[in-house]
Structures are given as structure tokens and as C-alpha cells.
Queue: 2 jobs
Job 1
Amino acid sequence: MKTHTATTGTVLPAHLRGISRVVVDETVQSSPLAARVRKRLSHLDWSVKPEGPLEDTGETVLYLKNYKGRFLKPCPGTSEYRCCGYRIVHIGENCPLSCSYCILQAYFQDRVLKVWANQDSLFKELETAFSKVPGKRFRVGTGEFTDSLVLEPLTGFSRDLVAFLGGFENVCLELKSKVVDLSWMDAVRRPDRVLPAWSMNAPTVQNQEEGGSATLEERLRAAQTCAQAGFRVCLHFDPMIHFPGWQKEYARTATMIFDHLRPEQIAYVSMGSFRCMPDLKRVIKENHPQARYIYNEFISGLDGKMRLLRSLRVEQFSFLARALQQGGLDRQLYLCMESDTVWTQALGYTPKKLGGLARHLERQGFGE
Amino acid sequence: MHGSEKNLLLLEPQAIDCSGPWLFWGGEPDRAFLESLGREGQIEPVLVVRQDGRNLLVAGSRRVMGLARLNLPVRAVLADPTGPAQLGIAYLLSNWGRAVDDGMRVRALRFFCAIDVEPEGYDRVLTLLGVEPRSRQARFLGEWLTLPKDWDQLLEVENIPLAAASYLCCMGSEERDAVFPFFKGVKWSRGNALHFLTWLTEIGKRDQVPVDAVVDNLALKTHLVPELSPKDTIFRLLKGVRKSRFSQLSRLEDNFQHASRQVLAQTGWTVLQPDNFETERVEFRLTVSHRDGLEEAVKKLERFVESGGADPLFKDQST
């Protein structure tokens, strides 16, 4: 009989209990990461296969893969809107949470949770990149194609990564998540180079649309723990959702933030409105029929993505920005993938005034 | 179901039973066909089976009707008796190559669904109807077959596109009944029909009310009046539904249109907002046929801008 208790004796978080089996590429079956997962999920079936595609059986499979692609990638921004210049450290793909708005539903057709088990290759590539130009700084993160911490109880990937990056003072790593896992903290050598980050939203959105995630209260308590340990944290209101009563709800979240954190403990806060490639709307309709926000007033943006009508976006950004500014935040606020027009209307200035968004966030990230 | 020389018959038209439900697409013979029959005679025999002492027509109803009118006997091939599915397939095979529309496809498929044809047989029927079994069109047909038969006549007269089935099949009977009148007397283009149904459905989901309530709330049936042309009816229906589905955008468009009308009236320039107010851009267009016309239009526009007439185009576009 399968249990929800890992061999280590700890109970698996609810979002990991749906994993039905583990598959590993034979070339990485002896890797430290694979050994760790095997120990922690010894109650599940374990199979080794030659490298190559994994057949989709509809199950939630954890697949430890020998990844052959690039590990360090630019964030896929578009030229029509201001990109934050973040770089992705690619550690795996997919997520066991079921956020209704998640773009990964459209990116990946299956439920396979892929983790790149050839960490030695990843570290080698990162070392080359980060050592190449002396003095060049990198603001990187792992939360683009997966949640940075959602598989941490099984893989310990972030713990390995922060330990590795401890040797690179020119690198600032952001760990972006919707769950609470702080097991990586004691491996950090320089807390000023690691930015724990949590997604924020209206309480109703968290409750109804972010299946399996930690509550806002839990996330903010974790952020508080990090801040007390000397880390500066990041918060991301992305995607903001337009729904009846949104003002009261986002104001509530802003209040909660300042109940847990002081402004100087926050490196930056992003705001982004829900946007997606048109096909995601169909996927959301099928997978999350309760999601009503997809029937908001969306138009086709300059990048071909569906975006909320500009006037509605500006209204939401302005409102939240005011609430966060009242709590003491100022230049920590930025907009994710927005035009200068929206920046001006919502915040009163453009990224140019900040010296460019990527450079501004780099300075914020490195604590200058 | 094979015919051979020994199975060739010569029958009086009245001796052939043309009431088989597998004769999906039978119709009255037109004058050209009758003239051809009279001049050339019957070139191809019809297909019949003999069951319970009757000659049941399998394919060739127009020929039988035409020959009856000309008081001529019918040459027929007698096939072996068989079940209804095979009779239907024989009819489709004998009509192979004929131009088939979605209304005709639905009529044929209703027959095969009523006799519970096997899935493989259903796929074969789709193929004979010119439809790839795993295609979007096959999906739409499958969805259409879940609708009440009343809708078939609207499809046959092309008032509504087959793709509308995706929306209609998700509605309850009261919701469908509420939208039926909008398609009954008006021929909709595919794009307009799908927009209409999409917006109605999405308003309902957004506001958590059934589609029939949306129809009532927007008083859409008031646009179904004989005084309006079909084109005007569709225009008003779409405008009413879109205004509810995209209320803020519609308001911005109305304001902009009002301002742009002033520009056109006073300068001759057409003004457009090119990107659903995602930017504050405004596009000015002018058509002239000679240089003087251009100079005059530019001067008019200059005077108009200097007087502040263009300000409303740029003011509060997004709010």
C-alpha cells in the first residue's frame, strides 16, 4: 500500500502526494539528485529507461532527466513591452500545483514533472558563464518553467544551487514560489545574494485559482522568517486578476504584507496583469471551468497576447501601487511586461527614469 | 450488394417504393434533368432490393420520379436484401462525388445514428461524406447530432454554420430555445454567428446567468422586427451583445468615434484608433487625387489642430 510518508519520516506536502511513480534516465540514475529522490520517494515505483521521450500516460510522473539543452536562458520577453531582464536558470519543467491561469498548461501537454538530474552539467555551464566577464553581474532565477521550491522536499535542487552560487558574488539568485519550503536556507553563504520570492494575489484568487498552493499568510510568514534571517525578499503580484471587489481584496493583501515585512526588507515588488496566448483561454475553460476572469475585457496586445483593456490594467496597477506606496514602498515597485504609456499612467514615470528596468532591478537585487 | 446482367429489371415507377429513410438527399427532378431523360433515356439503372414482395429503392429517386413523369419504365439493378446500414452506405456510394454540404451530411448522419451504427461504420460514413473522422468538422458534426432536429433545417438553409454546434450543444434546452429565433429567419455569416454565440455564452458565464436570461436582459428580441432588413437585424444584435460583453471598450470606441466624426466633417481626414486603445496612437488617413487637394486637406487639418479640435482624440483615451 502506498503512503504519503517519505522514507525520511516526513509527511509529503499535499501537492506532492499525487506523484504516482519516478522515472530516471539511465545516464543519471547514479547522480546525487537521483539518489536523493530515490531515498525520499522509496515508497513509489522507480524505473530506469534509456534517454529519449517519455510516453505520456496521463499520470503525474516525476522524471529525472539528462537534459541536453542550455541551462542559462534569457527571459522570453517581447520588444513591445518593458522586460525586467531576468535570466532563467533552467532546472526543470512543469509544476504539481494547479493554478488555473498557469501558462505551463499551454507550454506542456502532459503532467510529467521533469527535473534535470545532470546537475554537474548545469553547474559547469553556470560556472563558465558567470566567470567569463569579470565584474559582470547576473540576476537569475529558477521560477520560469517550474516553481522554484515546489519539488524541493524531493530534489533539494535549490539547496544545491544556493550552495554552488555561494562562490559567485556577482550572481543574485531569486527563488520564486507559491509554497513554503525553507530547507535550503542553511546552505546559503551570502544571504545578500539570494532573494526568496513569493507570488502575491488577492486572497480570493489564491483560494480559488491557485490549487495546492500555500495561503498568503503562510507565504508571508515564510518571507518574514527569511527577512529575519537577513535575506531581502521579493513579492510578485502577477497575474493580477480583475474581478468584482478586487479593490478590497488587493488592499487586504497589501495590508498583510506590511503586517509581516518592513519596506526595507523587500528588494522589489512586481505587478503584472493576466495575459496569455489566445490558446490558453481554451485550456483554462477546459481545465478550470470555474475560472470566470477569462471573460473579462481582453484585447489582443501588441505582442499578440490577450491582455486586459489598458484602462482596466492602469486602474488596478494605480490602486495597488498606491496601497504599497502607503506602506512605504517606492522604487521597489515595477510593472512586468508593460508599455511606457502604462508605466506613466500607473506609476508616474517610465523605466528610463530608473536608468532602465533591467539595471534598476539589478541594483535592487544586489542591495544597492 | 452486387448487380449483374441477370439482376437487371424493367419496372413500372409505381412498382418501386421510394420511401426508404436512407434516401437522404432525394429531390424533385428539375426541367433540365427531365429533358435529358426524355432525350437520352435512362443511362444508368437505379438500385433496388426486394423485401416482403416490394421493390425498395436504394438509390436513384430523382430518376424514378423523372421517369414516372415521362411515363417511362425504370431500368433497375436488383441487389441482395440487406440491413439498413448497408442500404444507407449503398446510397452514399451511389452518390459518391456529389457536392455535399453540412446540412446534407447531418441528414445522412441522423439516419446512421438512429440505427446505432458501429463506431467503425460511423467513421466509414464520415469518409463517404467527405469528412476526415478525426477532424474538427467531424467533431462539429458529432456535436450537432446532439441538438434537437429542429436545428437541422437552419443548417440546411445555411442560416447558421455547423461550427455553432460547439456553443449550442453546451446550452440547456431553454437557452437554445432562446437563441433559436435569431437564426430562424436570418442568414448569418460564419464569423458573425460565432461571435454572437461566443459573446452571449461568455456574458452568461461572466454574470453567472443562463443564456436565455442574457437574451432577456439585453432585450435582444426587440431587434427581431419585420421592418429591419436581415443585415440591419444582425448589425443591431451584434452591437447589443458586444456592448455588454465589452462595455468599457465599447464606451471608448463610442467616444473616439464621436470625436473622429468631427475631424472628418471639418477636415476630410479619416481618423482611426489602430490597436483597441492599447496605445495612444491615432491614425489619420486621407485620399486625394491631386496635389492641390492634398495641400488644402493639410491646411484644414492644421487649422483644426490649432483650434484644439483634435484634442478629444488624445484626451482620456484610456479612461
Note: DSSP finds 15 helices and seven strands in chain B.
Job 2
Amino acid sequence: MAERDELLEQFCVAAYPKLVAALTHYCGDVELGQELAQEALVVACRRWPMIAEFEDPVAWTYRVGVHHANSWFRRRRAEQRARARVADQVVDGDPNTTDRMAVRGALADLTSKQREAVVLRYFLDLSAEEVARLTGSSPGAVRALTHRAVRMLRDRLDNARPEEAKDAP
Amino acid sequence: MPRDLKQALLDTAATPTRPVDARGIVRRARRQRLVQRILTSSAVAFAVIAVVAGAAAIIVPVDRGIVFDRPSPPSSTAPARWADTATFASPTHAALLFDTGSDRVLAVDLDAAEFTRLRLEGLRSGDAPYRLWRTGDALVVGWGRVYAVPIATGSPRLLGEATIFVPATEPGHVWLVGHEGTAGPGQQGLAPSYRLVDIAGETREEAPGLPDLSPAHGVTGGMALESDTGVAIWDSGAHGVVARLGDGVGFVADARDRTLVWCEGDCAQLHVTDLDGGSRPLTPPVGSGEVFGARSARLSPDGSLVATIVHDAGPLDTDSAGVVVVLDVQTGRPTAVTAPLLPPPSHLAWTQDGSQLFFSASSQGASETNLGRYTPVNDTVELAVLPIGGALSFVALGDGEAQAFLEGATPLPGASPTQEVQETVVPDVQWLSLAEAHALLGAAGLTGDPASGPGWSDPPEPQAVVVSQKPSPGTRVARGEIVGMRTALVSQDLCRVFSQVPGREGDARALARAEGYWDMISEARPLADPPLAGHINELLAHRARGGGATDAPTRALDSVAIHHDACAQEG
């Protein structure tokens, strides 16, 4: 038992930073991202015999965190407020805020499915096939979803860049 | 851009502002496991009582019963039309065979207004790119083991083992694609092998170790492969990729001989390319901001027309209206355009002689199917609503071809229109009326329309089990509403008990394919007591084997109960 607990603690410590980053990209709020990561890790530890067999337990745990985030948004009815807060505030301990706010603002404009797919594919480095398997979709649909999302992100980020940066070679 | 995007995501990734309490997390997980074990025992005990009560209700008729409203027929027709008259004003001399996402097809005779659901050997749930396709005088179905079903007899023939099949342009042939060492379509593994077989199962061509791209459609002498960087044309004679079309994410819609219909990226243009000659880009004729449905286009049998679906250029996962457009391949000019249709059409099929084009919207989880017909010779578009749900893509069969499916077939339970809409007495468990269910949903912070409201398919962490509705005497409920309500109930963070009643496959399938249901099942705890445990445990085993929602086995879900006490304890 103690050995297993130790293993689980190691998994939590190793996965936590990546989960916080991925879930913050998803929900736009680092404080909420931390809470979601911890809740998702509880579920992961509870289901460990099952997820230990998975190729990427962190990706599975991220999906659990996404479900928690959706529940949170529904319960609080505050997704819009949260996004507005993110756009208006500088979060302590969250430096380099100009770029972060631009990226988070662009991500917030995506649909939740697009956002989830982008984070899985480009932040957690999963292939379209792996994302499809994880989200119960098909690789083609994932490619289409992420293609559209990337285009929207690019448009949004290009528009968010300062004028002088756009003119730079 | 993806590389830039990845860098942007990495550069702007948040770092935790407080350390993780790993020990606390593990302790909480251990406590929750213990509570779950206790609750599982009490839920199983309750479920046994519920089933006994349910059985009693079946034996002794009760005055509580749900009356399924017959879905409204097209507004221009009388309610009895489905049974008494043809679907369209002039005879179609055609029948449609719909894929339903499971091992059954839905065969619809449009002129006789008859339908039946029947099992087609080889057809099974799964995320294969093609599930039901016609070549020559046979249907090709299945993945893992691919079958040909001759239309004249309906008797299946095993063509061979393959991960998936892909249409060939040679009549009576099909490509079998194998990914040795992988468990299913879309999974990564060794380089695939292709095999061109005829519907007798004879291998005509074989090629191992091919590019690991997504095989999309055969072309004469090769195969079109989808990739993130356009469409690749693999040539069987040259044993390699001989051409590439486009450089965005490639989508292949259809092919005839050496002509390929494809698009890339957001499909703002549709390309009809002669692989030995030129290419004609077609643009949506409706207005600005429209895009073609990625794989929707279908060439007419003579190749002169291409029918396709055009959407607003919004996000792909919204339910924007769709327009069916028929374009002249030579001139690029539209010959027919429908009004915007909602739900958007998703499937198209020409009849074998090219005299009619049928289009339909997916109706899984719904109680009716929107169907349209375009007749090029007199340039007419007609719309109808079939009082049958559960339809996906389809093939059109000609006059007399459907007999093997519509006549010798034994309809499955619940298959006839009469059975589909008749009064149903639901076993007396611990039912909720719709009003009570709405109130419960409201108390849980979930408001809006459970049948169509947003977010319902995204459940919180589920605990197990399911449920149904308590009919108030005389309550008349549309079937679709019940499915929606169940989906909503499934989405709640409640303790649920799972049961089953034979012959209600449609509801189960709709739920099983809903993302929320699958997520719930993936989190459900194993139950010990059959038959209640059967389906959840079966799904858990499927999940443990790496299976997904789309190929999950389904069961009927009619009788279910909410266990309030257990849920209260759990909360």
C-alpha cells in the first residue's frame, strides 16, 4: 500500500505542472487551473489501476480536468465572467502577462471542443489519432477541428500583435 | 503555424503558484474509493428491489403509462400519410438503406411508406470511415472482418480480415486496408497494407508497407490518401505516391475512375480533379462565407454533376443550416440549390441511374428523419419528414432491389411504425415525472431545455447508473424528448442504477453515442449483480481494452431508477 501511495505521489508531483498549464490554457485562469488539476489528480489516483495501463495517463487526467471545468462553468454560470476577469486582471505570479493574455484571449474565443483539441494536440503533443481515441472522435474530425481552431487562433493572435511587431521583418 | 502555436502555448504556459499536495490527493482518493465500495453495495441492493418491482408492474397492468406521440408528419400531409401514401408526389422506384451506427440497417421503401430494421451480418459499431457502401450488386460492410452482401439475396460473404475497407472505383471491387499490429481504424502502428478484392473475395492486387497516411478512396490504378499536408495519390503500378494535391489538411469526398473530388483546409473550394488532366476548382454558389462540407460531395453516376453540402463558415461543431447544391462539373455553375435546411443535411446518395439525388440529415437520437429528393430531369426539389429516427448515411437501391431487405426480413422488436409509437407501459420503479425531473435538474443547477440545451453532454464526474421517467396518467411525451431527458439525467451528478429492458435498442444507442454517456460509463464503478451489472461491466471491459465511445456495445436502457438515498449519502 505504502509503495503504491509513493508511486501515486510521484505521479502527482510530476504531472501537476503540466496539468496546471494545460488546464489554464483551457479555462483561462491559473487559480482555477490549479484547483482543477488537483481534483483531476484525485480521480486519477482513484482510478489508477485503470489509467496506469494507458499510454498517456496525463492526457487522460487532463480530460477529467476538462470535465470538472465544464461542471464548474455550468454550476457557477460564470464562464463569461471568468473570461472577462482574465482579460481585465493581471494575476499575481503569472508573469509575461501581455503574451499570456493574448494567447488566453485567443483560446477563449474557440469553442470548448476546439480548445480541448488544441491543448491536447499542440500542448500535450498527442497525435490526431490519440486525440480522437481520447475524445471519442475520429482522426479526420480532430484534424478538421484543430485546423479550423489554428486558423482562428492565428487570425486572433495576428490581430493582437502590436502594430510595430507586424511591420517588423 | 502549428509549430508557432505550440511555441506560443509553451511560452505562455502558466506555472503553478502553489505546490501540489500530493499526499493529500492520495489520501482523498483512498477515502473516495472506500465510500464508493460502500455505496456500490447499497446501490446494487436497491437495484434488485427495483427490478422486482418492475417485473410486478409488467404482470399487473398499471394506469401509469407513457404514450409516445406519433411524430408529426410533414405539415403538408395528413397524419396517416406515412402508412397510406407514398413519401413523395411521384414514385421514386427506390428504397433507401440507412446505416444506424450499430449492427442494423434501416430499410425504407419510400413508395410503399414501409420500413424495417434488420441486422446485417458484418455490420457493427465502430469509427471506420466507411460502414455501408455499394459496389456493383453488393453492399460492403464491416471493419476487422469485411463482408460483401449481395443485394439480390442479402446473404453475406466474408471478403477478408482488414482494419477498414475503402471504396474502389472498379465496379464490384473494394480496397481492404490492414494495419498490422494495431487494434482498430485510426490507430497508429506499422505501415498499412492494401488489398484490392472483388466481391467474391478474390484478391486482384496486393501491396504491403505503404505510406502511413489515411486511405480515403480508391482511384483507378491506386488510392487517394488524406494527410495534414494535402491529398496524396498512391499508384499501384509505381508502388508509391506519384502526386500530391493541395498543402492544407486534405479531405477526399468521392472518386470515379481517375476523377477525384476533394478539398483542403476549410474547404472554401471544392476541387474536381482529373488525375490525368486538369483540375476544376468549384466555389460555393450561395454567397460569401460559405464552405463545402468536408467529405459530403458525391459525383453523379455519369460524372457530369457533383452534389454537395454547403455550410456557413462557422465553427464545425455548431448546428448551422446547410444547403444542398448540385454543380455542373464542366461549367461549375449550380443546377440546383435548396433553401437553408436545419438540421443541416449530412448525407447524399444518387440512384444508380442518376435520375434522383436523395439527401438526409442524421437523426440519431431523434424520432424523425428529414429527407429530400432532387430530380435533375425536371429540376425539382422535394422535402419530406420520415417518422423514423436513428438514420445515418445511406445507399439508394433501385426498383425491386430492396426486396431482399424489405420482404424476407424478420423485423426486430420495436421495428414497425406501430410498435414504435404505441403506448408503452414502463415498469414501476421509482419514477420521476418530467416536471419532477425538470425540478431536480433545476435544483442541481441545470436549467434550460434538456433535449437541446448546451452542455448537457458534458457531465460532471459521474458515479454510475441510469434512469427513466415516471409517467403521469395520460401524459403524452414525444419520443425525442424522452431521449433528451434521459441524456440530461445521465449528465447529472447523481447516483444512478442501471438496468435494461430488451427491445429498446434505439434509446440505448442514442445514449451510448452521446459523449456524456460514454464519459459517465468510463467512470462508472463495476457492479457485481447481474443483470444490472452486465452492461456497465461490459462497457468497462471494452474501455479497458482501449475501445472508444463509437464502437461501444450498446444495450437497451428502458428501466432505470434514481437512488436518492445513496446519492444523498454520497453528496
Note: The CA atoms of residues 29 and 55 of chain B lie 38 Å apart.
